[in-house]
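Weekly structure sync - notes
Attendees: PM, LS, DV (DV joined late)
Agenda: review two folding runs queued last week.

Item 1: First target. Sequence and structure tokens pasted below for the record.
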Amino acid sequence: MLHKIRVSAIQRLCVQDGPGVRTTVFLKGCYLACPWCCNPETIHYDQNLYFEKNSQVCGSSKICKRCVVYGGCQPKEHCLLGAYEKTYVDYEVNDLLSLIERDMSLFKKGGGVTISGGEPLMQASQLYPLLTILRQRGVNIAIETSLYAPHTNFDLLKDLVDYWLVDVKFQFGFISYIEKDKYKKDFELNLNFIQEQSQNNCLYRMVLSQQALPHTEAILKRLLKYQIPSLEILACHQLAANKYKQLGLSVPLFSSPSDEELKRFSKYINDKGIKTTILNL
């Protein structure tokens, strides 16, 4: 399956994922496991998670005996009652390309394709032929990434990318993990390239939870250390809580800062020389 691209979802008419109106492709798999992740189904590349869509019908019919849940051989996602939905599809490059090109008229008006995740750089080799074709056809390509990925993966794709959306991982509760992470050096190499070659085509973002607020100084220290010039701040939210429940996972305990707390944090970082904006989704 390694030649195929493992996709969790495709969303059209996106306006917050890069310049213009875009088609965003969410890939499965990530090197990190942020405890506030809003796409929990994308974290594990090989894990067969399922959305429980109609739990009230599960086990209600004789045909349920065919399902692996009840000792049968039929995969969950083949449920005839629609009780489960698989969280990814493996696409051949040409098949995914055909789906993306349905929006070519929008791309010609200043939009493009954004590859998100999960961590898109995990599937760099699978993405390379797709992005090469899109590039040849004049499609604007953006990648949303934490940059915590092997530099070899980043190096493979870097010349095919027009715009970077960098998810800054300086959130409370994760800083010490990141600092020790085996991809820390890769992160620094990847970030250094962007800052030298693509700074004008890069947007830095950070999710902020209420639990992070007492650690504002630690966050600022890292922003300054890595010379982040500007920052788009998103409030941590509970919109993914239902996803966690459907997947049978524990719902994260991170909570949203108040509007006033968000503004106060933004102003503090801004006053220290890092231009900030608050993104309201």
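Item 2: Second target, run right after the first with the same settings.
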Amino acid sequence: MAHRLGGRRKNVKKGFQFTLMVVGASGTGRTTFVNTLCDSNVLSKKICDNPEEAHKEEGITIKPVSVELDEDGVRISLTIVDTPGFGDNIDNEKCFQEIVGYLETQYDDILAEESRIKRNPRFRDNRVHALLYFISPTGHALREIDIELMRRLSPRVNVIPVIGRADSLTPQELSDFKRRIMEDIEHYNIRIYNFPYDVEEDDEDTIEENNELRTLLPFAIIGSDEEITVHNRSVRGRQYPWGAVEVDNPEHSDFARLRSALLSSHLQDLKEITHDILYENYRTEKLSRTANRGNHGNTSMNVDDMAGQSVRLKEEHLRKEEEKLRAIELKVQREIQEKRAELMNKEEALRSLEARLSQAQLTDA
């Protein structure tokens, strides 16, 4: 116990590293939530689509962004892994594969590092500790894409379901929607992070707090980076003709409780479950598959194979990113050429007009 307390004090002094992935279709409030969580413009909002390119399916992009936060004097190095493009296509199978591939690549990196004789002192653990899945506020029940995403990802990451833009529902609609979502989660046996506790080991306060957080699932989220005035005080929220919605008011939104759980009360628990359960399960699966493939090989060959696979996965990810950057570069070059040609045509027309004006003046003279 003394050792654990000493380690905890050291962590508090040194700060914490935490990785949060956010997944949700466009329009579910994912970007606004992250910016509200960090109280800064960490993610840029999506620019309006060009109607001429609406038929193109760009697919998902996985973007890690790091930000430093201070929570009650404790430094948190927070990495937000954004997933723009999720749910925007007709067939979203590739989205599932990309996200699972990203999560498993981080596990592979840890596995390869643990297997080395000489560890890298600067190695950074990029495992995702929690995934917020933003459910569209339809007011009905979970859609097929919601069920499939949470079922696929829950063995690899702590999935926490949230309802984005919850202010689009009435209080009764929201209550009914929450109930139906949790019924679906139970029916389809989806393993979400439900704030677990042990009656025999945990104290009464912990059990009470976790029970209370369970009743809030899925969290109803309202995000806003605007300041409004309510009862002569400035608060984050949204102003409507019928009244005001306050982001940090627990009667209006579950935002404050979720933020506190992620960045304070349950941060360490999410990290421990990621390492002790989710990663260990993956590690066991991976080593078992590797052992079955090479029963007659030696251990060092298996370790090399794992390290090599991790490198190949990273190279593949970099190759895809380079292809996307090349496509963007070609598009920009094409637009520049078009603008240049358009400018030259305008200059030619202007010169022609000036010539005609000069000729007209000579004729008049």
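Discussion on item 2: Strands lie at 16-24, 63-71, 74-82, 130-135, 159-163, 219-220, 227-230, 233-240, 243-246.
Action: LS to circulate a short write-up before next sync.
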